[in-house]
Structure formats: C-alpha cells, structure tokens
Amino acid sequence: MASRREQKEQARAQREATERRDVAAAQRARRLRTLGAVLALAVVVVIVAIVVSSGGSTKKGLSSGSKAGAVTAAVSAELQGIPQAGTRLGQPGAPVTMDYYGDLQCPVCAAFTTGALATAISREVRGGKLQVVYRSLQTATQSPQVFAEQQTAALAAGRQDRLWQFAELFYRQQGEEGSGYVTPDFIAGVARQTPGLDLGAWSAARARPALRAQLAADAAAARRVGATGTPTLVVHGPKGTRQLSGDPPYATLAKAIAAVAG
Amino acid sequence: MGDRPLRVAMGVLTVVGLLIAGYLTYIHYRGIQPLCFAHGGCERVQASSYAKLAGVPVALLGLAGYAALAGTLALRNESARLAGVLITVVGVGFSGYLTYRELFTIHAICQWCVASAVVMTVLCVLSVLRYLRA
Fold it and tell me: What average pLDDT score do residues A90-106 get?
C-alpha cells in the first residue's frame, strides 16, 4: 500500500501530465487555427494573382466603330511614309536588316510589336538605318491550317505592300488566347480595316501557291538559324549578326542594331 | 520525421527549384529559347501572355519565391516555418493555375514548369509537416 507521500507524488505527476496534455492540445489547436488563417491568406493571394493574370490576357478581338478607327489611325501614323515592299519595312538600302520571326496569334509578338519594335520603327527604320523583314513561324497558333490562313492573309496584303499594316492591325486586336478567335470573318475584318487594301486583289492573291511556299521557306530559314520561339529577331549588318528572342526592351534591340551596323 | 530531416529535404528541393527558376529567368533575359523535350511545348508557353504576371516574368516570380523559401529554411522559429507554408501554398496554387492554362488554354506543356510545380507541391507538404510537428 502506497504511503501518503507516494500518493501525493502520484497525484502531482498525474496533474502535471494532464497539464502537459492540455498545453500540447492548446498549442496544436492554436497552430491549426494559425495554419487555417495562413491558408486563407494564401488563397486570397492566389486569387488576386489569377485575376491579374487573367485580366492581362483578356482581349476583345476585332474592334468596331470609333475604336476600330482609332486602331487604324494609330497604325497609319506609325507606318506613314515608310517604304514597304512585300514583307520588308524600311529603306531597301538600310545597312542593318532584322528578320522578325513571328506568329500573328503570339501575344509576346504583339507586346514586342507595339513596344520595342514601334520605337525602333520611329527611330532606326524611319531614320534609314534598319529594315525589318517579317517571317512566319508557328508557335502560339495551335492549328497549322489556321496558321497558314492568317499568315498567307498577311503575305497577300504584302503583295500590295501593306503587310505591315495588316500585321500591326492583327496584333493590336488579338482575341483571347486559345479561344479560336481567328476565323475567316476575323481575317476579312482585319483586311477591311487595312487602309488602301484592294480587297478583291487581296482575296485573289491568298490562293496563290507562292504564299504557302513562302511559309515553308520561312520555316526552313527558322530551322537554319535555330529559331524555335517567337518573336525571334535576327539582326544582321556589316559587322555581323545578333539574335534575340522574346520581348526584348528597346535598349537591347538598339544595342544589337548598333553592334552590327557599319 | 524530425525537423532536421525535413529541413534537409526541403533544402534540396529548394535548390532544385532555384535551379529551374534561375535557368528560365536567365534564358528569358538573355533572349534565348529553353531546352525543350516536348516538341513546341516550351515555345508555345513562352509565347503566351501567361508567361508574365503584371509584366513580370513568372520565372522571376518563381525564383523570388524559392529564394524567400530558402530564407525561411535558414531560420528555425515558428514565424519562419509559417512563412514557408504561406510561400509554398501560394506557389502550389499559382502553379496549379498555370498548369490549367497550359492544358486548357495554351494546349501545350512546358516540362520546366511542370517540374517546378511538382517540386513546389512536395515542398508544400513538407512545409506544412514542418510547421505542425515543430
């Protein structure tokens, strides 16, 4: 039989064990509550990121009315007075040539075209230092058939020396990615917006086998230079060649142009 | 599993994540294309508007996330463990969203993104364990 003292010690030990269990349970409960709060905070952060990401990609597609007029006016102002021939934009004697591998559905190409390229057009191209040649490379467009339709539509506009107006209008009015917005109506709508384009001649030119051959030639040229993504920019001049890809800032592009210029 | 093995496992995975995100950030700013085993997958994903968040390349955001996670591993207090949980849960959530976009909007898979998503998911499980078991 335990002595009184031993009974007291047992009772204390039990009390301490119970207290330890209570403390541990309270700590576990507190941690779970904190974890729940952190998870809720994380969900909020992710939702905000998703809203920002989705908002950035929400594009409305082809404009109409005054908005379409504003887009066309902006493109006309950018390209006004710059010589064009086929796929080339700029003076044929410009010392530096930039091959621009693009896909008309590529959002990064759109960002480049309206960003760094627009600045280069207003400076180097307008100043006679740079000519830009548009080449087709399928990346963002999922269907090869749709890719061929949209790119040959641009090349057909190039038969009237209006490829760049067509491409700029297309890029500036891209629809939501992966939504299948490029339909025959969309392509015809871009053509209708292209200032000075003879729609009958454009329509007839689209069926020419030479345009499909041009796409194949561009794809072969892309393989030769190792271009797999868009935009890929091959800048070449008297002092060599520089290759860029993605959406480089204007300063990077200008540096590449200066590096190869004579 | 005690705190030390969890920290070691998380440290190794964080280094793997840093290497993946660092590589993707490097090639983004150098203007070169990623090595890609799935034909056209990486190029299509890179050409997508989802490759950036508010103008910031998602690869750079991932790099920042892994770097912050490495910082939480260097500390042993509860706040650091909790911060690790927050970073990895956000990482898993956003990686899941991007994977959804790859599958159902872009219709292409970038293996680097998938690898990072897997690493982040395992890190998330380990960070929750580390927090609860401390």
Answer: 96
